[in-house]
């Protein structure tokens, strides 16, 4: 397997910043995606990273280091609606599959 | 527009029933996917269709039978399911398969309960 690894759960306060990490096997790496999934709903695409560096989209940013097989998703100015599971998914060359991590459950409290 | 639609939203069926799940997208995407997701687990890939042809079957039991009637539609026919098949079934689509920017967009899912 591609050993996509994510921590499982974290709690943070409204207005705070959280960082969700993801590590993966680097061989054949093609791209990395972050999805948000609220309980009982479908995953919603947040961002993708192909090259090293930081991609910023409003309150959400995603970082990639291809040499380290590492990515993180940064959530700023947390809102209650950000309580969800955040899934890291990796695409590999010659492969029609997305390898999903187990997801990181973020709970935002007042 | 990045919308993938799925029907029904909820389905309850007995182990002897035959039912079908439907998925539709009008984004011109040529790859479509079925996933199964259990609570607190990531989505598990079941099938991939590329240009209306089945390209991946992840060793899914034959009681699940996919069908792609055209480039916009994807069905999943269900027959003689087991209670452990109860899950959220997600459909997704992407522009193509295997290129760098092939983001998969997910439908809202069908919550299936097998009694």
Describe this structure in words.
The complex is a heterodimer of chains A (110) and B (115). The radius of gyration of chain A is 13 Å and the shape is globular. Chain A contains no helices and 10 strands. Chain A is 0% helix and 55% strand. Chain A has 110 residues and is an all-beta fold. Chain A has strands at 9-13, 18-23, 29-37, 44-49, 53-57, 60-65, 70-75, 84-92, 98-100, 104-109. With 115 residues, chain B is mainly beta. In chain B, 0% of the residues lie in helices and 56% in strands. In chain B, the strands form 2 sheets. In chain B, strands 2, 4, 5, 6, 9, 10 and 11 form a 7-stranded mixed sheet that branches. The chains are: A mainly beta (110), B mainly beta (115).
Using only C-alpha atoms, the radius of gyration of chain B works out to: 13 Å
What overall geometry of chain A do the principal axes of the alpha carbons give?
globular
- SSE order of chain B: EEEEEEEEEEE
**Low-confidence blocks of residues of chain A:** none
Q: Low-confidence spans of chain B: pLDDT under 50, at least 5 residues?
A: none
How big is the Rg of chain A? 13 Å
Which structural category fits the helices and strands of chain A? mainly beta
Q: Pairing-aware structural class of the strands and helices of chain B?
A: mainly beta
Mass-distribution shape of chain B = globular
Largest interface: A-B, 25 and 26 residues
Terminal CA distance of chain B reads: 37 Å
State mean pLDDT of chain B (0 to 100 scale).
Answer: 92
How many β-strand runs of chain B? 11
**How many distinct helices of chain B?**
0
DSSP strand (E) fraction of chain A? Answer: over 45%
